[in-house]
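Quick entry between incubations.
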Amino acid sequence: MSEELYRENILEHYKRPHNREKMKGASCSGHAINPFCGDDITFYLKVKDGKVAGASFDGHACAICTASASMLTGEVKGKSAEGARAIGKERVLALLGVSPGPTRLKCALLPLKALKMAVYSHLGKTMGKDEEKEIAEADEGAGRQADDEVGK
Amino acid sequence: MAFDVDAIRKDFPILARRVNGKKLAYLDNAATTQKPRCVLDAMRDYYENSNANAHRGGHALAEEATEIYEAARKKVARFVGAAPSEIVFTRNTTEALNLVACMTAGKGARVLLTQAEHHSNIVPWQLGGAKLDYATMRSYGAICISDVAERLQKRPAIFSFSHASNVLGNVNDAAKLCRMARRAGALSCVDAAQSAPHMRVDVHGMGCDFFAFSAHKMLGPTGIGVLYIRKEVGEKLLPAFGGGGMIEDVDWQRSTFAAAPQKFEPGTQDVAGAVGLAAAIDYLEGVGMAAVGKHVAMLHKACVEELAGVGGVRTYGNGSKTGIVSFNVGKLHAHDVSDFASQEGVMLRAGHHCAKPLMRVLGVSATARASFYLYNTEEEVEMLAAALKRAKKVLS
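Done. Structure below.
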């Protein structure tokens, strides 16, 4: 599994992550930890005129988690808050280009959780239990549905 | 009998399997150990030939099951130098520590722990609402004795500490720490999950009031653990859980309890688990605890040397007596390291090892951990080093 997991694109984002910095003057931020391994990610967003104008992340994380966070900072730029909120599990896996095993899936999805927490804090709402569960347990169907919405 | 690791390996069916097409190097023994065939056979034999409910009913099979269960208790008692009535079977070390917390430290009670504890020796005390204080550690991983002395002056009800840390592997001088606790008027509780599998212990000589360990970390089955409760303490304690088999008499409003250990063992017991543990003890004693310790120390030394050869590896603590080597490879995340090792057939643990407060003291979010037992070999240590070199090459 590892050989395939550590693909070139993942290693590239891990070794030279995009937008890895604590953002000054961020509109909002979200923090998520993985109690299983201690990964810890904070996601920062700058929202201007209803669109994500900037995104960055910071924290301690493994290669998969770091690559996922790095890719998500690019993915979320230019999206509306609702568009950012609607990014789903399938999109993250598509960006990574692999389907990690159940343990590492949590690593891959942790940045998505931090991103969503940031969006919710911007919207002044809290994440619903169902959505939190969807990210934590990576329910296939729910993830795909969210992904479809992004495609629209 | 000379120590023969090849002969020992043949007793463990799982060691012959392959993982990811590679030879299996099982180096996660501090999490759980593999089981020799004799343990599995003993449990199967019990279920096939003697199964009944121990301590219930007077029929022939119930009596046989009771005898088998109590024989296992006797064996465990002898293994740690206790009287059989001082041995309580639990599900595991965690349940044993929860029991101690329930029975000795209510809301607001002062409890002294150390910074090197597993969550199982922290959270049970928090749940009961105790006021927790933590003795600090020396940089090399042992508990700081003078700090313990100072904190004992605050008169905690109980001092509960790990005999050996599951992350650092250092073995603490439990006899000394228990003596200090007693002089300060505190009970002492020893989490021996990582020490009991590796060394001869004598709980009476140690002078502890409680001593807890798990069968599954010493070749026995999962689902059964042991809590030693010193006789004088056990006589006074009220049980934490009620149920069948632990009473003397039950009336509408109140009950009186059986003597220890029965009063601490409500409900149908895991007889097959006790049988498995007894068989594991027989196996370990057949090899000899001293020989096990010597072999594990040799592997620990070889591992530390091999890791030094990888370059950029930092190790934490000193587990020469418990076979534990916690480490990080440069800036690589422990999870990535363990994934690469797994790919090469080497099973490591990675993460915070259920010791998040200790991770904070060490200033890391996670470590990788190799842990050895009697069936591991130097070849497996070399497999580990090769896997780490590969991880370093690909990820750095």
